[in-house]
Amino acid sequence: MRLTAHTDYALRVLIALAALPDGQRVTIHDLARRHRVSSNHLMKVVQRLVRMGLVKAARGRSGGLSLAVPAEEVRMGQVVRALETDTQLVACLGDDTAASCVFTGICGLTGALRGALAAFFAELDRLTLADVAAPQARLQERLGFGAVRERTLDLGQP
């Protein structure tokens, strides 16, 4: 299964926010520059994460992004399920199976793919955001979270 760019960027944002030093925030612009992605695209991703209740966004001079819930409470499988609109690996796993494939009902691949998809999500469900952001010091170093300016971080140039 291939995740969409939207989900990929959302996971990157969440990991970066989980790596933030306590009480700090980072701007969308800084994250976009650090990850070398469009600020406009990242803004859409962040808006979705805010609607999901995972991210807090504060406006103003000392504004920025932070996690809305503890990283230990965010299950990666739930995040991916919520962000991915199509987890159908092949046509026969969709709603209209009768019209989708001539082999529907007689092929052993459908069950195998269904099982593989379940295993994929079971593995992600096992992990929290805190688990995937565990080497916080290394993540902070990689993201340049050392230079703190007031309450907002400036990530500088990569």
Question: What does the model show?
Answer:
The structure is a single chain. With 158 residues, the protein is mostly helical. The chain folds into two domains: 1-74 and 129-158, Arc Repressor Mutant, subunit A; 87-127, no CATH class. Helix content is 49%, strand content 9%. The strands form two sheets. Strands 1-5-4 form a three-stranded mixed sheet. Helix 1 runs antiparallel to helix 4 and helix 4 packs across helix 6. It is elongated and about 60 Å long.
In short:
With 158 residues, the chain is mainly alpha-helical. The chain has 8 helices and 5 strands.
CATH homology superfamily of the largest domain: Winged helix-like DNA-binding domain superfamily/Winged helix DNA-binding domain
Query: What does the radius of gyration come to?
Result: 19 Å
Report mean pLDDT, rounded to a whole number: 85
Biggest sheet: strand arrangement: 1-5-4
SSE class: mainly alpha
Helix content: 40-55%
The total number of structural domains is 2
Sheet with most strands: 3 strands, mixed
* CATH first level of the largest domain: Mainly Alpha
Question: Strand fraction band?
Answer: 5-15%
How far apart the termini lie comes to 30 Å
Compressed to H and E, one letter per element, the order equals HEHHEEHHHHHEE
The 3D shape can be described as elongated
List the helices and strands and how they pair.
Elements: H1 5-19, E1 25-26, H2 28-35, H3 39-51, E2 55-58, E3 64-67, H4 76-83, H5 97-100, H6 109-126, H7 129-132, H8 136-143, E4 148-149, E5 152-153
Parallel strand pairs: 1-5
Antiparallel strand pairs: 2-3, 4-5
Helix pairs in contact: 1-3, 1-4, 2-3, 4-6
